[in-house]
Amino acid sequence: MAVQPATLGQELNLNNQQTINADSPTSSNEVVVKCVDDAGNTLVKDTVLQGEVGKPYTIKPATIANYQYAKLANGSAPINGTFSKGTLTVTLVYTKVPVTQRTVNVKYVDEHGNEIAPATTLTGTVGGSYTAVPANVKNYEYAHLAANSAPEKGSFTANPQTVTFVYTEKPAAQGSVTERFVDEAGKRIAPDKTLTGQVGDLYEARPIEISDYAFSRVAQGSAPAGNTFINGNVIVTFVYKQVPATQGSVTVRYVDENGNELAPNRVLAGQSGSAYTTGPITINGYRYVRLAADSAAASGTFPKDTGLVVSFVYTKPAIPVTPTTPETSTVPSTSSQSATTEVITPSAQRRLPNTNEKHEYGIAAVGLALLSLMGLGSTLLFRKAKRQ
């Protein structure tokens, strides 16, 4: 308990107390000053004033943080009075003052003033201290405070303040992921693939389609198929199991322009997806001209079924006939009549035989050749007779 000697005619300022030992010998009487809240709770230590009976005292309420003096408690001695025999108690009642929060805004910007991270806000009461610290910003490093920034450490004021941290961009660290494709024995069955990205970014590795294999699982001990890039390289290993190869076939046909088969069909067989190549063959009496309109390509890959047909179309070339102009001669005769040789004019065009007429066409060709030889022989005999 603080004890303050009272001076005649002076007021007691509880904010500037000079205390004396309450146990010191004195003939003075006392005034005890209490400071309490609305509920009667003591806010500061009691103060005791000593003085002679009949001398005046005056009490000035103390300033207490976040409280303000409101009134004297019921039954309290007066703030201004005189010492009397015994002890007087002055009870000062205070009410709590609502605390107004003040703010310090903290911003994170690049060298051009662009925000690179969300701003934060510090709150406190006027006079309270604050400390702002630079945040960790991906791909940036803290450089300095902005020229117009409030200090990193300071006190809250009635007006808002802003602390601005300036950052410089740093090269982003790169990571890589190797995608590996193996069979169940660990043998590679396709070339590796590589993914690259900034450290911390997400990656997603995926299995690929491989002929005659089906994806089974991610290998034990492999890096996960989905994760974030790290400094360096990680390997994601996809394991495949072999599946039976699918066989396909290609039918090859040789036809005339009417679609009639000229030679037996050929059937090519092979693993689906593998290459095939075919071509026209030599057929006696026919000449290859083109692929049929609905034909598959002469070269391609085997299908998964038997649905491909390659059709080579042939034509039968016409046999040219050389026209012959017979000589017209006068044969001597004893009669008054003159003899002449009949001129046979061959047809300008012969009809080409159909496929089912090929045997008859061969016989006709032989006959025509014999007739030509006979005509030539007759001409030679006639000339010989004339010379005689």
UniProtKB/TrEMBL annotation:
Residues 352-388 form the Gram-positive cocci surface proteins LPxTG domain. This is Cell surface protein. Keywords: Cell wall, Membrane, Peptidoglycan-anchor, Repeat, Secreted, Signal, Transmembrane, Transmembrane helix. The chain crosses the membrane at residues 361-382. PROSITE patterns: GRAM_POS_ANCHORING. Residues 323-341 have a biased composition (Low complexity). Residues 323-343 are annotated as: Disordered. It comes from the Bacteria.
